[in-house]
Amino acid sequence: MSVLDLLALLPIIVIAAAAVVVMLAIALRRDYRLSAALAVIGVVLTIAALPVSFGMAPTQATPLLVIDHFALFFMGLLLATGLAVILLCYGYFSEREGQNEELYLLLLTAMLGAVVLVASSHFATFFLGLETLSVSLFALIAYPFKNKMSLEAGLKYLTLSGVSSAFLLFGIALIYGEVGTLFFQQIGALLRNSGGGDLAVLIGIIMIVGAMGFKLSLVPFHLWTSDVYQGAPAPISALIATVSKGAVFAVLLRYFIVSHANDFEALFTVISAIALLSILAGNLLALLQNNVKRMLAYSSIAHMGYLLVAFVALNRIGSQLTVETVSFYLVAYIITTLGAFGMVTVLSSAETEADALEDYRGLFWRRPWLAGCFTAMLLSLAGIPLTVGFIGKFYIFVAGVDGGLWLLLLVLIIGSGIGLYYYLRIVFQMMKEPARQEDQTGGAIPWPGGVALSVLTVLLLWFGVFPGVFMELIQGMAAP
């Protein structure tokens, strides 16, 4: 490897080094604040290293990793999201008993897996990045080991994630047995030369899509989602819903474009059915919930279904428009979902998790600023104008129209209408009078979480009103 290759890989090197530094710091001295500070510094330095890699891009830094504008864009997005999760974790875990320094080590290794995943050009790094991310999540979900719900959630995620990894490896083996390579680019070339491959390749790709369907909690692979989101600590639920899903969707999009898997019409029929069922099931199941975390879990299923609408249009509208649409919607989804789970995080205490709908009764009277931020997040999730969520759904709708996906668009409109109802349920609950007179005022929230929520709210409104500048950035960077 040359010096230029090392410079191209600098973000991955820095985030890996940050994890090692935090681990050594914990071994030398247990200090919660120190571990949190080192984790923040490590992520900030990694983000600062992205421009250096940008100057080297695009380059095949190693046979297994490609550093291009697409990878760097998603690295920046996922690292910024991880930084917000660290800030939310600081106040949340500082009030809880136990030695919580290792939490930040696990957060850094999860981000390491995510950045490796989005830069993958080979199934080996695809799998290694995915497992590095997933194994970190096992421990993070069950981190409050004295909480039975957290342990149950961690066990469920561990078991079902193992099953999905088996499907992924079997699908990879079928493709390798047919084409004799694990490189995305070479798979695409060989499939093109052979006229699209045979049934074994199609089954292999379907198995990979099924494995990724688990990670994205798409129907019918969604059964774990609500239990895991409810049992996991609130900021970790935010990590699963944003960093994990964003990284998986990014690498799946790269694989389909580079390997020309979109040439299989039968495959896109299956994905269309998954998108339709995810939108309907996610929204309908969310209607039945009185637990905010479970409601957001089912909402995330529906939003992944919306993303699949643009994904299905890939072989009809071209890769460039698909990548732009998916990238913008992922940004909108991450901002709003992170803000919504962040609200649950800052309102939770060491004794109770603020996840019951009743916990938000009278929030406008007790904490008007927090209630305003939460309302903005919910309206963005519903796709109301002047929010980033509206712009994201508009791009999805345009992609669907250009691709002629009329049935999926109809389902998208119906699902959005259903979603508006259960999002407004939370808003109306916040507008009610507090149940007790002493609830008229609220205490202070941890300042790192407050900073994160403030920035997310500003971005939500800014990108909703002035999306042009950010869309130009996506057009220039998000192209594999």
Architecture overview:
The chain has 480 residues and is mainly α. The protein has one domain (3-477). 77% of the residues lie in helices and 1% in strands. It has helices at 3-8, 10-28, 32-56, 69-94, 102-118, 123-141, 148-179, 184-193, 199-215, 225-231, 234-259, 265-287, 292-312, 314-317, 319-347, 363-366, 368-382, 388-403, 406-431, 447-465, 468-477, and strands spanning 59-62, 65-67. The protein has a two-stranded antiparallel sheet. A hairpin with a 2-residue loop joins strand 1 (59-62) and strand 2. Helix 4 packs antiparallel against helix 5 (102-118), helix 9 runs parallel beside helix 12 and helix 15 (319-347) runs antiparallel to helix 18 (388-403). The longest helix is centred in the middle third of the chain and has 32 residues, at 148-179. Mean pLDDT is 87; it is low at 438-442.
Summed up:
The chain has 480 residues and is an all-alpha fold. It has helices at 3-8, 10-28, 32-56, 69-94, 102-118, 123-141, 148-179, 184-193, 199-215, 225-231, 234-259, 265-287, 292-312, 314-317, 319-347, 363-366, 368-382, 388-403, 406-431, 447-465, 468-477; strands at 59-62, 65-67.
